[in-house]
Design goal:
Layout: E1 3-5, H1 6-13, H2 17-25, E2 33-34, E3 41-44, H3 48-59, H4 64-71, H5 75-107, E4 114-116, E5 120-128, E6 138-142, E7 146-153, H6 157-168, H7 181-200, E8 207-208, E9 210-215, E10 220-225, E11 229-234, E12 237-240, H8 247-253, H9 259-262, E13 284-288, E14 295-299, H10 301-304, H11 309-316, H12 321-334, E15 341-349, E16 356-358
Helix pairs in contact: 3-4, 6-7
């Protein structure tokens, strides 16, 4: 067999030698032969197709862990995974595009009030202790504008999660527009961090996640820190719109752990970010453009650790919001109920009145 040096192979597949060494370490693209004396890597020409696929997927921006999954699939299944990944990228890009248009108009002095068809929310919330934990440290809230879930930890976890959500509740009565909602939400999260810090009283063991959606009447603003999650069900497809701030998720993103390995990893419960946090623990803030017919879910990890995403997608289609949150919580408990579980759900529904002006 004719061997290609790492330099020749890198040139042929348009991956750098540095990238090839990383992919070897991550078991994504192993060399066909390693010289036992020099440690020099050699590749076979037959490996070029896989290497080029890796290069193309990296140019799409796909994380290394997901690339490894795609490369292990047969071509038809791999194509479906790429299609699903790109649909999520396009959805996120659309959100950023709308925010960029607003900022351009605002900064150029061309912002103006527009007549927009307002949508409405139909919502429900449910929280349960589960079958194992002695108490419920989750807090779930659903209101006219605010949907929130916080998952507390430590001896005062229940108080911490309640304090975090309470700090956001004044936003129900605030004057909101697409232009100011992220700033208001960011300020509210600072207040939430201070409230949790007061509850913790200096203890590093007390904290909480916080994932919330705030409704302006035409947009949804998302704030997220920790490993509670938010999902969007649109046209039968389920999209996770948050990214876990956990130790194992960081390892998955780096390609050092697979999602399957993460499920049993000894550090799977450790958070990389939470409230009250420090200066580096900034929350994720995003603006979403909902459509009539969308269904949003905010939930604690008591649901997502017990029920796979595909099953969540199926159950989210169950009836009215009250029915859907009930079956989701029941599913987590039927799977063992090893943790507190909370679910907040909202349907985006057409308006009942004429269009009104919004900011």
């Amino acid at each position: 067999m004719e061997w290609l040096t790492i330099g020749a192979f890198a040139k042929a597949c348009r991956l750098s030698p540095k990238a090839l060494r990383l992919y070897d370490e991550l078991d994504l693209l192993r060399p066909a032969r390693v010289d036992p004396e020099t440690g020099y890597r050699y590749y076979a020409a037959a490996q070029l197709e896989r290497a080029r696929l890796v290069a193309w997927l990296r140019r799409l921006g796909m994380p290394l862990a997901r690339i490894r999954e795609v490369c292990a699939l047969p071509p038809a299944s791999a194509a479906a995974e790429v299609r699903a990944y790109w649909a999520r990228v396009e959805a996120e890009t659309a959100v950023r595009r709308d925010l960029a248009v607003f900022l351009v108009d605002h900064l150029s002095g061309e912002s103006r009030r527009e007549t927009t068809t307002m949508l409405e929310l139909r919502y429900a919330a449910r929280s349960d202790r589960g079958h194992v934990r002695p108490s419920n440290q989750d807090t779930a809230y659903a209101g006219r504008r605010l949907l929130a879930v916080a998952d507390g930890c430590g001896p005062a976890g229940a108080t911490a999660s309640a304090a975090a959500v309470a700090a956001l509740k004044p936003l129900e009565a605030a004057e909101l527009s697409s232009g100011n909602v992220l700033n208001l939400l960011e300020d509210a999260v600072r207040s939430a961090a201070e409230a949790v810090r007061g509850v913790a009283e200096g203890s590093a063991d007390v904290g909480t996640t916080l994932t919330a959606l705030l409704w302006t009447g035409s947009r949804l603003a998302l704030v997220h820190i920790g490993d509670s999650r938010a999902y969007l069900l649109r046209d039968g497809e389920l999209f996770r719109i948050t990214h876990d701030h956990s130790v194992v998720q960081t390892m998955i993103d780096e390609g050092r752990l697979t999602p399957e390995e993460a499920e049993s990893h000894p550090q799977r419960m450790l958070l990389a970010k939470a409230l009250p946090g420090g200066a580096a623990d900034t929350p994720d803030l995003k603006l979403h453009e909902p459509r009539a017919g969308d269904r949003y879910l905010v939930c604690s990890d008591g649901l997502t650790r017990a029920v796979p995403d595909e099953r969540i997608r199926e159950l989210l289609g169950e009836g009215e919001p009250d029915d859907a949150v009930r079956v989701l919580v029941d599913a987590a408990n039927e799977a063992g109920g090893t943790d507190n579980v909370s679910a907040v759900l909202a349907d985006v529904v057409p308006p009942t009145g004429p269009p009104v002006p919004v900011g």
